[in-house]
From TrEMBL:
It comes from Salmonella enterica subsp. enterica serovar Kentucky. This is Uncharacterized protein.
Length: 120
């Protein structure tokens, strides 16, 4: 099932590219295990886990070399994402008073910056 091309308009290729990128990201991010976020995980540890999953998913469909190549690509991405996530967790937390101050700046009915919908 796919969205009808005429409905996407002249930005069709751009929007489809975004969709495929997101689907790829969702597929790859399924390999990010919570245990990676609480330890100093290494590439070989991630590769081992990813390869086991890829080997199970692909079975005999692909040879070991292909599965290792795909596992390597996914593992590098997973390691990169884990580093980004753990670094972002180290950011300074915003205090309750700072959050209230920011909400006050937005006026009576603050809205989501992404959707434009008012908060309930």
């Amino acid at each position: 099932m796919s969205f009808p091309d005429p409905m996407l308009g002249f930005r069709r290729d751009l929007l489809k590219g975004d969709m495929y990128r997101e689907w790829g990201r969702w597929f790859i991010e399924q390999f990010i295990d919570v245990k990676y976020l609480s330890s100093n995980v290494t590439y070989p540890e991630i590769f081992y886990d990813v390869f086991r999953i890829i080997d199970t998913i692909c079975g005999w469909t692909y040879d070991r070399t292909d599965k290792m190549e795909v596992s390597g690509i996914i593992s590098r991405y997973v390691l990169q994402r884990v580093k980004i996530i753990t670094e972002s967790n180290k950011r300074r937390r915003v205090s309750l008073s700072e959050r209230r101050e920011l909400l006050d700046l937005l006026g009576e009915k603050p809205r989501c910056w992404l959707t434009g919908m008012p908060f309930s």
